[in-house]
């Protein structure tokens, strides 16, 4: 799953998409006509139901908040007008004038938007992603105190191949039209535009939030909407984003090790009750200074590696022999096994302090998937499908794809702007900021996230020139990992920071 040191949110779950082939009927054909064979590469068109709506209410800050939940579809069309796909969205709308609207995307590639929806910012939430939780716990929806719905309407969009969104063309065309970073941005930008037009919201203040690879999408969507579609966003929020470009070979470059070390230290500090902004400031300074310098010095300075090993051992609390054998360069998966080796458990790349038992503790390498990824499929799928089909009444026999291994496997990772390798997102972020002097950006990370470490965004954002107000682009960190919003305190802190951003418009 994580063969490269810097890969972010790669999905390697054994999930498959089921495709049915329509039967072709021979009625009315001559008896001698050869039997037609169906195109095995072409999926059956599964008709999706019309949009469905339900009125709901939650209690937020001691008061009722009424809203309308909608599950619906928007078509994706080729240049000739022929439908090529259907994108399913879930929206939450509160009656009232001058309401902003926020479009939400998860990542993967291959993740549905259920994680932001029922985990972070939607009006309801289901428990997942925290230590001690079980996949078989009741998938019960409760009112979400961290929701953004009181200050912005919310539209959660599932990319083709995720959730219930489906392609209407064969496999080869699906890969060509949808499963690559550039085409992904083009059709999803059009979906945002189409939703705005359909709902009469072009004049609303508009925001984009993306998590993980959705965070990679967010600046690119913003720039594309500005320059190609003709719709400007007011703000961008990136949750645990895959923003940082490839930092070079870890055999030579210090950047891959610089990116992950502070998050490993943060996990240690959290276990000790020491995790604060003030405690992490010297860790960040050391990483950008002496740590990077000692890696670059290598054997040219005989004291460099011993000095580095001593300091890293102090900061991380890890076994000194393990750190010395690693040369102070802590490979993520090796660290996650070492961290809890005495208990027979594994730490998660998404949050090292969320653990599960290692079913193969004596193997030389990790033989199971990530503890968090293995545990979140059941609660999120059950809760979302039950909400859509029973609560909202939007009925379909399609399978819900919370995390699609098929999308991730078929994704075009080879291009310059491919997932996790290119600099297109960071470049588009610069361009979007330069184009719109009022655009505001919040990059929001969990301190201990080793999937998309906060230090990558810190290093990336620090290279963006100041263009006008220096506070327009901010990087904030919160206790927790990739899904730090699973912790109520971090969820509420994120909510406050986003409220502040929206209030500035």
Provide an overview of this structure.
This protein is of the alpha/beta class and 505 residues long. It folds into 2 domains: 323 residues, 3-Layer(aba) Sandwich (Rossmann fold), CATH 3.40.50.1820; 114 residues, no CATH class. It is 35% helix and 16% strand. The chain has 14 helices and 14 strands. Strands 1, 2, 3, 4, 7, 8, 9, 10, 13 and 14 form a 10-stranded mixed sheet that branches. A two-stranded antiparallel ribbon has the order 5-6. Helix 3 packs across helix 4, helix 4 crosses helix 12 and helix 6 packs antiparallel against helix 7. The longest helix has 21 residues. The radius of gyration is 23 Å and the shape is globular. It starts with 51 loop residues before the first strand and ends with a helix. The N terminus is likely disordered. This is Peptidase S10 serine carboxypeptidase. It comes from Granulicella tundricola (strain ATCC BAA-1859 / DSM 23138 / MP5ACTX9). InterPro entries: AB_hydrolase_fold, Peptidase_S10, Ser_caboxypep_ser_AS. Keywords: Carboxypeptidase, Glycoprotein, Hydrolase, Protease, Signal. GO terms for molecular function: serine-type carboxypeptidase activity.
CATH class category label of the largest domain: Alpha Beta
Q: Report the order of strands and helices.
A: EEEEHEEEEHHEHEHHHHHEEHHHEHEH
Shape: globular
Which structural class best describes the helix and strand composition?
alpha/beta
Unreliable segments of 5+ consecutive residues: 1-7, 9-41
What is the count of β-strands? 14
In CATH terms, the superfamily of the largest domain is: Alpha/Beta hydrolase fold, catalytic domain
Proportion of residues in extended strands: 15-25%
* Number of self-contained structural domains: 2
Share of residues in helices: 25-40%
For the record, the CATH architecture of the largest domain stands as 3-Layer(aba) Sandwich
Rounded to an integer in angstroms, the radius of gyration calculated over CA atoms is 23 Å
The DSSP helix count reads 14
- Give the averaged pLDDT, no decimals: 87
Q: What is the end-to-end distance?
A: 41 Å
The biggest beta sheet reads: 10 strands, mixed
Signal peptide: 1-26
Biased composition (Basic and acidic residues): 28-40
GO molecular function: serine-type carboxypeptidase activity
Keywords: Carboxypeptidase, Glycoprotein, Hydrolase, Protease, Signal
């Amino acid at each position: 799953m994580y063969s490269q040191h810097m890969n972010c949110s790669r999905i390697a779950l054994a999930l498959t998409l089921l495709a049915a082939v329509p039967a072709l009927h021979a009625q009315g054909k001559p008896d001698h006509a050869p039997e037609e064979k169906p195109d095995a590469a072409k999926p059956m068109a599964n008709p999706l139901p019309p949009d469905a709506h339900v009125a709901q209410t939650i209690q937020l800050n001691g008061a009722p908040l009424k809203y309308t939940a909608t599950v619906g579809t928007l078509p994706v069309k080729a240049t000739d007008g022929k439908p090529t796909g259907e994108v399913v969205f879930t929206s939450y709308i509160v009656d009232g004038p001058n309401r902003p609207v926020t479009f939400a995307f998860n990542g993967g590639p291959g993740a549905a938007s259920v994680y932001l929806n029922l985990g972070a910012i939607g009006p309801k939430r289901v428990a997942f992603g925290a230590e001690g939780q079980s996949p078989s716990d009741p998938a019960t929806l409760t009112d979400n105190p961290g929701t953004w719905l009181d200050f912005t309407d919310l539209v959660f969009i599932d990319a083709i191949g995720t959730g219930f969104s489906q392609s209407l063309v064969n496999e080869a065309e699906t890969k060509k039209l949808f499963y690559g970073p550039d085409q992904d941005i083009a059709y999803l930008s059009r979906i945002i535009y189409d939703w705005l037009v359909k709902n009469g919201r072009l004049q609303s203040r508009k925001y984009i939030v993306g998590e993980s690879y959705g965070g990679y999408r967010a600046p690119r969507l913003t720039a594309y909407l500005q320059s190609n579609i003709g719709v400007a966003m007011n703000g961008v929020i990136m949750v645990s984003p895959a923003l940082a470009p490839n930092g070079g070979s870890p055999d030579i470059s210090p950047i891959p090790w610089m990116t992950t070390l502070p998050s490993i230290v943060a996990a240690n500090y959290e276990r000790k009750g020491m995790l604060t902004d003030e405690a992490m400031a010297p860790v960040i300074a050391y990483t950008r200074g002496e740590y990077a310098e000692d890696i670059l010095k290598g054997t040219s300075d005989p004291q460099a590696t011993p000095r580095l090993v001593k300091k890293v051992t102090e900061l991380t609390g890890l076994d000194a022999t393990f750190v010395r054998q690693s040369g102070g360069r802590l490979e993520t998966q090796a660290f996650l096994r070492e961290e809890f080796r005495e208990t027979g458990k594994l730490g998660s790349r998404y949050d090292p302090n969320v653990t599960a038992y290692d079913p193969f503790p004596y193997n030389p390498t990790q033989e199971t998937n990530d503890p968090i990824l293995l545990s979140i499929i059941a609660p999120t799928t059950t809760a979302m499908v039950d909400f859509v089909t029973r609560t909202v009444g939007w009925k379909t026999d399609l399978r819900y794809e919370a995390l699609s291994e098929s999308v991730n496997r078929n994704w075009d990772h080879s291009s310059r702007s491919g997932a996790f390798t290119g600099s297109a997102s960071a470049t588009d972020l610069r361009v979007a900021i330069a184009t719109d002097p009022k655009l505001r950006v919040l990059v929001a990370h969990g301190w201990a996230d080793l999937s998309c470490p906060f230090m990558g965004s810190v290093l990336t954002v620090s290279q963006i020139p100041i263009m006008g107000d220096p506070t327009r682009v901010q990087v904030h960190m919160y206790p927790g990992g990739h899904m730090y919003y699973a912790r109520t305190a971090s969820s509420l802190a994120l909510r406050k920071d986003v409220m502040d951003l929206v209030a500035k418009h």
